[in-house]
Each structure stands twice: as structure tokens, then as C-alpha cells.
């Protein structure tokens, strides 16, 4: 498991493109028949992916890093499948996940196994894990069952649907909040006007992008914005002091996840368009 330390905004002002990517960009999530994990010290979120093709993939890592006897002893886990049909076994109970289905796995679950139903069309399980203080039951929701709402307009190039899976009024968790935003054809902007939420960090994972398409992800303090070029199935860490917005050369989908002091989806501090620099 890779480790990333938190960065102070005064430091980030001095970062060049390479350093920005080293600190915040996550280029590799899905390695066939392997588990990829990254621990960020931003609220100690773990971001990763499991890509079973010909063999199962177990949720396991160097437990010295976490100071526990098993991965979810003091953590919870959110999973969204962005590939073909798959199965997640949680302490022997099987959960089928189609593309864009979500599974929450509560603290105390000892064995988690990821499996694809078809090697020719393997599942890709995107993972977000946060520290937990209370056990909540494992629960699944589909895209159709999620709390969803339309936002934006084609005139502003940001017509999109926001789906909330793990949140205050949906699947219950200790602190993890997780959902998905789908941009409609002809739209490319997300999260603009921008905001920050000093009480929570966030991570974005962009997908449904053609091979030659990119998203310009904007980050940084509102008065000191920077950008990171994102491609299909790549993630980015957003500290609590940073905006998190983007514009693509194509419409796309992204998964957002948060951890911090509360689970209120609407808890954010709006940034005026005039304040951006």
C-alpha cells in the first residue's frame, strides 16, 4: 500500500506539474488479479481498486500500517463496480454487483473477496475506505435505487445527474460519503461554481472516458488554482482546503467520496466565480 502525506496549501503554491501529480494524482487503480491501495493522510482515506480477472482478489495489506489485526477491524469500505458483472464475498455472504452498483461493507467484516463473473468482461471494483467508530450493516444499492437529482443545464455545459449511495439519508456509515455524477452528452463541466468543505476531504475517480479524452481537474485554494490532467479510470485527492472541479474534452462519469467531521452532503462553502484565480 502506497502512503501519501498531507500537504499544506502554502507548500502547494510552489509545486510544479510533476510534484502536483506526485502528491495528488492516482494513475493506477486496476491491475489484473491484484489489489491497488493508497493511503492518504487527508483524513486517512484509503483509495484503491480490485481487478479480479482469472482469480479472486482478497482485501488485505500490510496491517502494521493500519495497526490492526484485519483490514476492517477499525474501518469501513465503500465499493462501486465500474467494470463487468462481479461478486463480493463478505464473510462468506455473496453480493452480486453489476456495473455502477455500490456496496457498503461495515466495520468488523473480517474477510472480503472480490470476484468477476466473466474473465472476458471482468469487474473493476473501485474502493474507498475510512476509519470508523461504529459498526453499520453491509448494504447494497443499485444505480436505479440511489437518491438521484438533476443539476445544471446544457446552456452552461454542465447538465448532469448526481446519484448518492452512501450518505446521511441513504446507506448509513460512520463517516464515509460516496456517490456518482454522470454528465450528459454535450456537457463537460463539473462542480462549477466551485466550493470547498474545510470539514471533509474528497476524492474523485473519473471514468467512462474515451481513450483519447482527458479531464482538466482544477484544484488548489480559490485564489491559487492549479490543474491536473486526468484520464480514464484515474483518481485524484482533494484536500479539505481545495476546490475540486473539472472540464473534459468529452462527457464522462466520476465517483466522489468524502470523509471527515460529518456526513452532510450539502455542507460546503461556496466560492464566488469572482474569487477564482
UniProtKB/TrEMBL annotation:
| Keyword Membrane annotated | no
Binding residues for Zn(2+), per the UniProt record?
195, 197, 202, 244
Broad EC category = isomerase
Cofactors, names only: Zn(2+)
- Biological pathway: Glycan metabolism; pectin degradation; 2-dehydro-3-deoxy-D-gluconate from pectin: step 4/5
> Which reaction(s) does its UniProt entry say it catalyses?
5-dehydro-4-deoxy-D-glucuronate = 3-deoxy-D-glycero-2,5-hexodiulosonate
Q: How is the cofactor bound?
A: Binds 1 zinc ion per subunit.
CDD domains registered for this protein in UniProt: cupin_KduI_C (cd20491), cupin_KduI_N (cd20294)
Q: Identify the EC number(s).
A: 5.3.1.17
Which Gene3D superfamilies does the protein's record reference?
Jelly Rolls (2.60.120.10), pectin degrading enzyme 5-keto 4- deoxyuronate isomerase, domain 1 (2.60.120.520)
UniProt keyword annotations, A-Z: Isomerase, Metal-binding, Zinc
GO annotation, biological process? D-galacturonate catabolic process; D-glucuronate catabolic process; pectin catabolic process
> Which GO molecular function annotations are given, in alphabetical order?
4-deoxy-L-threo-5-hexosulose-uronate ketol-isomerase activity; zinc ion binding
Task: Name the InterPro entries on file.
Answer: KduI, KduI/IolB_isomerase, KduI_N, RmlC-like_jellyroll, RmlC_Cupin_sf
What residue stretch is flagged as signal peptide?
Answer: none
Q: Which family does it belong to?
A: Belongs to the KduI family.
Instruction: State its role.
Output: Catalyzes the isomerization of 5-dehydro-4-deoxy-D-glucuronate to 3-deoxy-D-glycero-2,5-hexodiulosonate.
Q: What PANTHER family is this protein classified in?
A: 4-DEOXY-L-THREO-5-HEXOSULOSE-URONATE KETOL-ISOMERASE
Query: In its UniProt entry, what is this protein called?
Result: 4-deoxy-L-threo-5-hexosulose-uronate ketol-isomerase
Q: Write the gene name.
A: kduI
Amino acid at each position: 500500500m502506497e502512503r501519501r502525506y498531507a500537504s499544506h496549501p502554502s507548500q502547494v503554491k510552489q509545486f510544479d506539474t510533476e510534484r502536483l501529480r506526485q502528491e495528488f494524482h492516482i494513475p493506477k487503480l486496476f491491475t489484473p488479479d491484484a489489489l491497488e491501495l493508497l493511503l492518504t493522510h487527508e483524513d486517512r482515506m484509503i483509495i484503491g481498486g480490485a481487478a479480479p480477472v482469472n482469480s479472486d482478489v482478497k482485501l488485505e495489506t500490510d496491517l502494521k500500517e493500519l495497526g490492526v489485526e484485519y483490514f476492517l477491524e477499525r474501518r469501513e469500505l465503500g465499493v462501486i463496480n465500474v467494470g463487468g458483472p462481479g461478486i463480493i464475498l463478505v464473510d462468506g455472504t455473496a453480493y452480486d454487483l453489476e456495473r455502477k452498483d455500490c456496496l457498503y461493507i461495515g466495520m468488523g467484516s473480517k474477510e472480503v473477496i472480490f470476484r468477476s463473473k466473466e474473465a472476458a468482461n471482468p469487474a473493476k471494483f473501485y474502493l474507498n475506505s475510512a476509519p470508523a467508530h461504529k459498526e453499520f450493516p453491509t448494504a447494497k444499492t443499485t444505480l436505479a435505487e440511489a437518491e438521484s437529482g438533476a443539476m445544471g443545464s446544457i446552456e452552461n455545459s454542465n447538465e448532469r445527474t448526481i446519484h448518492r449511495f452512501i450518505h446521511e439519508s441513504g446507506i448509513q456509515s460512520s463517516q464515509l460519503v460516496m456517490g456518482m455524477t454522470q454528465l450528459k452528452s454535450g456537457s463537460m463541466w463539473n462542480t462549477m461554481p466551485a466550493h470547498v468543505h474545510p470539514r471533509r476531504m474528497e476524492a474523485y475517480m473519473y471514468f467512462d472516458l474515451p481513450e483519447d479524452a482527458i479531464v482538466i481537474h482544477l484544484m488548489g485554494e480559490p485564489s491559487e488554482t492549479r490543474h491536473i490532467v486526468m484520464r480514464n479510470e484515474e483518481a485524484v485527492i482533494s484536500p479539505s482546503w481545495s476546490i475540486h472541479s473539472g472540464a473534459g474534452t468529452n462527457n464522462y462519469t466520476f465517483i466522489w467520496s468524502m470523509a471527515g467531521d460529518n456526513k452532510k452532503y450539502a455542507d460546503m462553502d461556496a466560492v464566488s466565480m469572482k474569487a477564482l484565480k
